[in-house]
């Protein structure tokens, strides 16, 4: 199993993420348009593994974490990055795994319609997001930035989105299992 798919222990209680700076939410996915073209869509699906391995091995690139979301026609990765500049630098780096994967997609699939790929990028300003995790392992923002228990000051969504950095000791982000 990869670092991001190893099950983590459920943490009883209610927590909120502790993002103290702006960050990027990056959604990237593939959609199987022709279900019986198995060789083509499995080739596309396998391309993500080497990129994630590279990103986990080099935290200086700005990648924070990822979650996998499956649907019947494909997969979406929910990723967190430190900044758009770092995300763009990785995507444009001739020495990184992304550009060869992109070139391979264009050679193998191109515009034949077998597989669709997509991405969306969201820049989140400091203090413009809130989260709640009840009886969850580290997930999403809490995996990327750490978490802290929900208290009276952070009990409601309005309080979490309006509050300055929350009082109390933050629990650091979950480190990927080895």
List the topology elements.
Blueprint lengths: L10 E7 L5 E10 L5 H9 L1 H10 L5 E9 L2 E8 L2 H9 L5 H11 L6 E10 L8 E4 L4 H5 L1 E3 L7 H6 L16
Antiparallel strand pairs: 1-6, 1-7, 2-4, 2-5, 3-4
What's a quick, concise take on this entry?
With 178 residues, the chain is an alpha+beta fold. It has helices at residues 38-46, 48-57, 84-92, 98-108, 141-145, 157-162, and strands spanning 11-17, 23-32, 63-71, 74-81, 115-124, 133-136, 147-149. It is 28% helix and 29% strand.
Task: Please give a structural write-up.
By secondary structure, the protein is an alpha+beta fold. It has two domains: 1-20 and 129-178, no CATH class; 23-124, Alpha-Beta Plaits. The protein has helices at 38-46, 48-57, 84-92, 98-108, 141-145, 157-162; strands spanning 11-17, 23-32, 63-71, 74-81, 115-124, 133-136, 147-149. The strands form two sheets. The protein has a four-stranded antiparallel sheet. It has a three-stranded antiparallel sheet with strand order 6-1-7. Strand 3 (63-71) and strand 4 form a beta hairpin. The N and C termini lie close together (10 Å). Mean pLDDT is 87; it is low at 1-5.
- Trace the largest sheet across and list its strands: 3-4-2-5
| Largest beta-sheet details | 4 strands, antiparallel
First-residue to last-residue Cα separation: 10 Å
Order of helices and strands: EEHHEEHHEEHEH
CATH architecture annotation name of the largest domain: 2-Layer Sandwich
